[in-house]
Specification:
284 residues; alpha+beta; two-stranded antiparallel ribbon; 9 strands
């Protein structure tokens, strides 16, 4: 697997250097568009609507259109944003795992310890396991600020990006508000049907039938000689610092707890002081 991002998990003063890897991969058979007549590859070009020139990807910037005006954002503009420069995965809070709505789960990533000692990594993993908590974290990846759930899968920490609240649509369907009567017998029969299908879930027992059939079709065409020269059709294939160590993990933990207690104590003292302060009477 190839590292796609390096940084550090941070909670309080505890710093956990990590490498980030994509946890999933696409198993679809790669298909390309070709000319039916001769098998020639169909390629798309990026063309400027103003001058008509074909533009190299390196010369393309982003833009936002607002009331007819185009605001161009260069790569330097985007790279200068504070969030883009951050190399931290910041723990915002720890929540009960059952409070994370499955509908909001998006892309998963594996986190690998990136330090001489994985002690801080293992400590965080075991803490999440024992407390049955999921860490909600915030970080920046590919010019996007992301919210994510940090959880445990076996021995590895998994970072799963979450959709933002305003990205989840409301299920506003009138039919759901209708008063539907379900008889006891119908419910019993339905439950019986569910029971007949009941089993322990085994992902390995399921296969992508379409991709399997597609692969069989391709193999059959190769066997029959029904192919074009690959190099002519598709062209030649193109080739596609350690973070800071935690010097004293226990000291970082103690300092984080002490800092949190001090902040709470200060807040409590202010409230108590406000209660004891005499209220000035208004002049009559």
């Amino acid at each position: 697997m190839r590292t796609i991002w390096k940084g550090a998990l941070t909670f309080g003063l505890v710093n956990v250097p990590v490498k980030v890897y994509s946890a999933t991969e696409d198993h679809d058979v790669p298909l390309h568009q070709v000319h039916e007549k001769d098998g020639g590859r169909i390629r798309y070009q990026r063309t400027c609507e103003v001058c008509g020139e074909t533009v190299a990807y390196a010369d393309i910037d982003r833009a936002y259109v607002d009331e007819g005006q185009t605001v161009v954002l260069t790569k330097d503009d985007l790279a200068a944003l504070p969030a883009e420069k951050s190399r931290e995965i910041e723990v915002v809070e720890f929540v009960p795992s059952d409070q994370v709505d499955l509908l909001t789960l998006d892309k998963p990533y594996y986190l690998e310890p990136d330090s001489k000692s994985p002690k801080a990594y293992v400590l965080l993993r075991r803490t999440l396991e024992q407390t049955d908590r999921t860490a909600i974290v915030r970080f920046t990846l590919r010019q996007k600020t992301r919210l994510a759930a940090l959880r445990v899968r076996g021995k590895v920490l998994v970072l799963q990006t979450l959709l933002w609240a305003d990205e989840v649509r409301e299920a506003a369907f009138p039919a759901l508000d209708e008063d539907v009567r379900i008889s006891k017998k119908e419910l019993e029969l339905s439950a019986s049907l569910v029971d007949s299908y009941s089993a322990d879930f085994d992902p390995e027992s399921f296969v992508d039938e379409y991709q399997k059939e597609l692969r069989t079709l391709i193999d059959a065409k190769i066997e029959a000689g029904d192919t074009f020269d690959v190099s002519e059709t598709f062209g030649e294939a193109e080739d596609d610092s350690k973070s800071g160590e935690v010097i004293d993990l226990m000291e970082a933990l103690r300092a984080s707890v002490a800092r949190t207690k001090a902040a709470r104590s200060e807040s409590s003292d202010k409230k108590e002081s406000a209660k004891k302060s005499p209220t000035k009477k208004k002049a009559g």
